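Chapter summary example.
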Amino acid sequence: MIDIKEKPKMVERAFLIGVRYPDESETTIDQLLVELEELVNNLGIKVVGKAVAKLRDPRPKFLLGEGKAQEMIEAAAAVKADCIVFDTELSPGQQRNWEVLSKSCVIDRHEVILDIFNERAQTREAILQVELARAEYSLPRLKNAWTHLSRQRGGGGVTQRGEGEAQIELDQRIVRERISKLKKELAEVIQHREVQRKQRLRVPLPTAAIVGYTNAGKSTLLNQMTGANVLAADKLFATLDPTTRQLQLPRGQKLLVTDTVGFVRRLPHRLVDAFKATLEEAVVADFLLHVVDISNPDAQAHMETTLAVLRELGAENKTVLTVYNKIDLCPEPERSAWMARVSDSIFPVSAVTGDGLPRLMERMEVLTSARSQMRNLVIPHDRYDVLNRLHDAGAINKQKVDDDGVHVVATIPDRLLGVVAEFEQSPNVKE
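The structure predicted for these 431 residues follows.
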C-alpha cells in the first residue's frame, strides 16, 4: 500500500471493484466491469486486478462491510495498485474512509467519466459543462485527503495527483462562487449557440440527430453519409461536441445531420444535466438515427440506456430509425438474422463499408419529404432572394427561366410554404 506522504504524481495501476446488489445478475456486473476497465484504459491507466463484492445491505462507512473492505484493500495491494476504482458511486464520506484505510487513491465510476470528459472536451461549451460538473461533484468532497479540484492532468484531470496537493483545503465559498460564474458563462455560450441554431433554421432544412451508446459508430456513420471528416476513434466518448453536417439525399433533398455525445450506463446524472444543452439537438431534430453496435454482446442493454436518456430529455416521441451498425463484424448466421429484421424503422448497416446505407438514406428522404409539399412556382426575376432560399433548402427539383420569371417545380418544406404562397401556380404538382 502507498503511504499518503509518498503520493505518485499520476495514477498508473488500478484495481476495480464491482458491487453486486441483490437485484443484479452476475453477468450484468461482469459486463459493467469490462466497460469500467475500458473507461479506465482510456485514461492511460492499466487495470491490474478486478473483484466483485456482493452487497445485501449498504453500510454507511465503507458501503461494504469493514471486513470486506479490508479484504479488497489487501487484494489491491497484492497487485501493487495505486488506485482503487469502484463501479458504483461512493458518497463523499465513504470515499474519504476508503482513502484513509487504504492510504491510496480511491475514486468511482463517475469520477473516471468526468476525467474522460475533461480530456475530450474541445469547444468552449463542452469545456464549461465539464468544469461545472466536476466542480459540483467535488464540492462535497473538499475535506478528502485527495484534492479533487486542483489536480493537474491535461487541464485538471481527476486522476492526477500532484505533489503537495493532498492536504490543500479549498474554501467552499470560493468553489460555490466558481460554480455560479461557470453557470453564467455557460448560459452565455448556450445563448450564442441558440442564435446559431436560429440562423440555421432561417434556411429551413430538415434536421436529423444521430444518437446512441458511446463507440457505436455514430461519427463513422456521419462521415460515410456526408463525406465529413469528424473524429471517429475506436474509444469511448471520442465525440463530446455536437457536429452538424449537410447531407444531400438521393433525389437532391438536403438534410442537416448532427452527431451527438454517446451515452453510457451509469452516466453521472450531473453530466446528463450538464450536457442537456448539447443533447437538445436530439430534442429539436425532425427525427433521430439511433445507432446500435450489434457486434457488441451488450447491444440490448446499450439500446435501453440510450432510450432511457432520450426519455429524460423529452425526446421519446420522436420518429426513430434504428440503425443496427457493424454488421460487417457479425459472423454468419448472426449477420443473416440481423438482416432479416429489416423494416421501415430498422436498418442493418455497416458505416465502414457503406453496406445498407442506400436503403437508410432512401427512408430518410421519405421522412424528409413527408414534411414537404410539391409545388409549381413562378418566381419573378426581381425575387431571386426567394429562389436562393429554395436552393439553400435543397427544395428545387426542376427550374426553367422564362420571360415572366423562373418556373420551378419544388418540394417545399412546411416552414417555407408561407414564403412561396404568392408564387404558386395551379394546379399543384402531386408527387
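To summarize the output: Residues 1-200 form a domain with the Rossmann fold fold (CATH 3.40.50.11060).
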